[in-house]
Amino acid sequence: MTIQLNDMSLLKTQAFVNGEWTDGDNAETFAVTNPATGEHLADVASVGAAETRRAIAAAEVAMQDWKARPAAERAKFLRRWYELVMENQQDLAKLMTLEQGKVLAESVGEVAYGASFIEWFAEEARRVYGDVLALPQTDRRGVVIKQPVGVVAAITPWNFPNAMITRKVAPALAVGCAIVLKPASETPLSALALVELANRAGLPAGLFSVLPGSNAREIGAEMTGNPTVKKVTFTGSTPVGKILMAQCAQTVKRTSMELGGNAPVIIFDDADIDQAITGALISKFRNAGQTCICANRILVQDGIYDAFMAKFVAAVQAFQIGNGMDSASTHGPVITAKAARDIDAIVKSAVEQGAKVVLGGQIDEQGECFYQPTILTNVDTQMRVFREEIFGPVAPVFKFSTEAEAIAMANDTEFGLASYIYTRDIGRVWRVSEGIEYGMVGVNEVAISADVIPFGGVKESGQGREGSKYGLDDYLETKYICMGGLHS
Ligand code: NAP
Q: Which residue is closest in CA terms to ligand 1's atom 39?
């Protein structure tokens, strides 16, 4: 075994269904591989529709008791889970870097970020409020109460193998729902370690099951088709989100969708250039460019363009790609060899249409999952680098002249998740923030995410918000009760 943890019992390779570790019915497994080395890390149980159905049935049973408990009790469980996650931060981070590739410091950060959602929703659990309404008729009053939506099914991606899970599971459990989760096939170990810690924190059987599986379609079809599931929450690509929404329509399930992005970073002439460069570097290259809020298009106003490029290129030249476990590495591999080839195809197609490679531009000799940090200029709005989510360490830098042009370029996409603007002009801050069609705007800042903020997108980047006080709403139904007969 190539994995060494302080607590080896965090390394789980079975599914967790109805409070028990179990193999799939067919005893099938799938391999988990280290993208930095190609090493085989583990074989994980692969479940299908039948196990998913049993997990959903168990969730329905577990939820009856859970939702009837005082919110403070649910909060206490979440708090304990949070503490255990933080106590095991190093082990969870190591597992993450091994299966996902991001550098260890980023994994350590993600575990704390993921845990912050558990802590936040432990606190928010006690803050579910209703309303009393004055009705037109004087002999009655209206009461609005909030109730848990029901059994939730969640499907999550590999790029944040911890936080994308806690951001769904914690609010669901906080309000009294039960949840079944399918993690991404590339990163099941992080998910299984998380549920192991939840179990140690006192998780009731059936309340949270984790269903690893190599047949996502089969598990997804059961989750979206099963009438017991009342809500599906998904983080992943827009095409898969659309499939799940269509499937959910058959039983009119509630959905939350955290989908792809195509974030612009708009840097105006009056920006603090060093701040803008630092922001663009962090936002573009974090997690090797594989975050949904990564800068995808860097738009620089013509007056500052040359100065920006000189410093930006020098900074990217200093990056050290390598194994995430090596402290000298500033950036790790991308998730798979196929991902690296897909990134390369986007770059090659830009070059064929006239783009200039200033840096990088190919798969690195370190291995098939390593893509060189890349900067492209001479790019235009018809190229794939402008239109598609690159999901890799490739920075296309576009030039613009006017504020109106920048807003039009930013909005020229079906996506609308994160966006960033760099300017010192307060009027422009408001005009552009209100003029661009995005769920989130970072003004002179790219580190916009936190437990307290409503994370989510508009247009084809999704619907619903995760984190913040709004994050509970996605797991609550609104019920109106008309109280009549008040007149004596
Ligand atoms: P993906 O291919 O959509 O996969 C995401 C999850 O969906 C995985 O668990 C996958 O399972 C599963 N899946 C795939 N096809 C399915 C189907 N037909 N039915 C049911 N489940 C299915 O996305 P990804 O490549 O892992 O993640 C990258 C994408 O996620 C990017 O577009 C990124 O922007 C987006 N993302 C968005 C946010 C946000 O908050 N908006 C956050 C992070 C990532 P398998 O792994 O088994 O294939």
A: 258
Residues within 6 Å of ligand 1 by CB:
155-160, 164, 182, 184-185, 216-217, 220, 235-237, 240, 243, 258-261, 292, 389, 391, 417, 457, 462
Mean pLDDT by 10 residues, the chain (488 residues): 91 98 98 98 98 98 98 98 98 98 98 98 97 96 98 98 98 98 98 98 98 98 98 98 98 98 98 98 97 97 98 98 96 98 98 98 97 98 98 98 98 98 98 98 98 98 97 97 96
Domain boundaries, the chain: 8-260+461-480, 263-412+418-450
CB 84 within 8 A of CB 200: yes
pTM for this model (two decimals):
0.97
Identify the CATH number of the domain defined by range 8-260+461-480: 3.40.605.10
Q: Which residues contact 51 (CB under 8 A, 6 or more apart)?
A: 15, 17, 22, 24, 25, 211
392, two tokens: 């890799």
Give one word for 288, left, alpha or beta, with left for phi > 0 and alpha for psi -120 to 50: left
Selection from 264, 270, 225 nearest residue 244 by Cα: 225
Q: What is the widest separation between alpha-carbon atoms in the chain?
A: 85
